[in-house]
Amino acid sequence: MITDHTLLGLATIMYLGLVFFHILYFVWQKEKLLSAVQHILYAAAAVQAAGILMRWAISYRLGIGHAPLSNYYESLIFFSWSISVFMICMRKRRLYPAITFVAAGISLMLMAYASLSPGVERGIQPLIPALQSNWLHIHVITCFLGYAAFAVSFICGVLYFFRPGGIVPTRENLEDINYRSIIIGFSMLTSGILTGAVWAHFAWGSCWSWDPKETWSLITWIIYALVLHLRFTGGLKGKRIAILSVVGFASVIMTYFGVNFFLAGLHSYAT
Question: How many whole angstroms separate alpha carbon 95 and alpha carbon 120?
């Protein structure tokens, strides 16, 4: 019997295949391998989406009935999928194998961690009353799409300093993709914070409570707002924007992973 875990496990294997075919492309530089990479990326995202939708349907069958966005396992799965969706959307413009290779590796690590870590609860759990709202979908989706865009920005920032010949795009292209990714990520994160504030008002009677995740989300927002401000007014370019991209994503990691494990709060997925 095919379950959501079956489909998500298959998607994990496909991400592994995606990483493997990238390596083959880097070694042999065959266009057919690059075409295979593209098809595997589409297939992995589709299979993963099917697994998420099946998990959603199962939750209704169990009488719980909520989108699979509520616990740590589901957030890891959705984060991984968001990165794939962002890669697919960016490919219509120009995204390079070096970037998709690292992004696929991040998606693979998120899926592997979700599937293999003994500390991750994989069961479908009911929501507490305060979280039973359609705002859950909007808030979580916008935040993770923002995180996915920031992940691509981070990759561009790192590749700016490590450029194997013939594999990584030019610094100008990296900077362009980095900048566009930050604009998209900042817009999504802003939407996530605003929808979260509205949701918090209806759920707890306060738009802002200085919960650790709220605080770190604000810190992350300020970092990327500073990047965009300096870019617009001061012509921030080159190494400085690459460094700030890495710093910004470090704040994203703290917002998502660090708060879960080190700072208890309303948004903590894990104990």
Answer: 33
The number of domains in the chain is: 2
Pair of tokens at residue 211 = 């919960």
Residues 4 and 36 in one domain: yes
Give the CATH number for residue 78: 1.20.120
User: Do the Cβ atoms of 266 and 206 come closer than 8 Å?
Assistant: no
Is the Cβ–Cβ distance between 224 and 189 less than 8 Å? Answer: yes
Three-class SS state of 270: coil
Tell me how many degrees the CA angle 155-146-125 measures, rounded to the nearest 5.
115
Same domain, 2 and 48: yes
> Are residues 106 and 184 both part of a single domain?
no
CA contacts within 13 A on the Cβ side of 183: 8
User: What's the sign of the alpha-carbon dihedral 156, 159, 165, 166?
Assistant: negative
Q: From first to last of its 271 residues, what are the pLDDT tens digits of the chain?
A: 788 899 999 999 999 999 999 999 998 888 888 889 999 999 999 999 999 999 999 988 888 888 888 888 999 999 999 999 999 988 755 568 899 999 999 999 999 999 988 878 888 888 777 677 777 788 899 999 999 999 999 999 999 988 666 678 888 889 999 999 999 999 999 999 999 888 777 767 777 777 888 889 999 999 999 999 988 887 778 889 999 999 999 999 999 987 777 666 555 554 3
Length of the chain: 271
Q: 242: domain range?
A: 131-271
Look at residues 104, 122, 140 and tell me which one is the last residue of a structural domain.
Answer: 122
